[in-house]
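In the laboratory, one determines a bound structure by crystallizing the protein with its ligand and collecting diffraction data. In a computational setting the workflow is compressed into a single prediction: the sequence and the ligand go in, and a structural description comes out. We illustrate the idea with zinc ion.
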Amino acid sequence: MALLNILCYPDPRLHKVAKPVTEFDEKLRALVADMLETMYESQGVGLAATQIDVHQRLVVMDTSEERNQPVVLINPEITWASEERIKGEEGCLSVPGIYDGVERAVSVKVKAADEHGQVRELEAEGLMAVCVQHELDHLMGKVFVEYLSPLKRNRIKTKMLKAQKDSA
Ligand code: K1U
Ligand code: ZN
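The predicted complex, in structure-token form:
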């Protein structure tokens, strides 16, 4: 297994739109294992393939307290979202150190395949629902800071670019 490099905002590759996965093979399962290892190592609750510069519709998540319930979503689609919405604090492994409020549906149903191509539908609420919506945004090339005001977004962009320059 291997740790993967996570792209940092405002890297333009974070805005690429992912394409559907077509091959459910050993290469895909190795990528899933590497993404899970990278997510756990980074203390994340989710990771989208876009964030590691792989532009395929693939997400890994684990929102359990024990960090022992990995979820793999391949070619995920939200089939239902509650009308009830809630504003909660979000972070992003691609925007380290930045947290801000984003409004999301309280519950969603998502249809997705696992790494063996087995399709199922799961219902998510709470942190898992937020995480599903955050990660599916990544697959569409959208980063959570795009929900914030242009002023906040520009401040974050400047801060990130400075941090990247200072650590180079
Ligand atoms: O996609 C990512 O960058 C992962 C991101 C996803 C996320 C979903 C929902 C709310 C916040 C963040 C993270 O995992 S950021 C890690 C984090 O700090 C966190 C950990 C536990 C709960 C909430 C956030
Ligand atoms: Zn993110």
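Residues 150-166 form the longest helix (17 residues). Keep in mind that any predicted model is a hypothesis to be tested, not a measurement.
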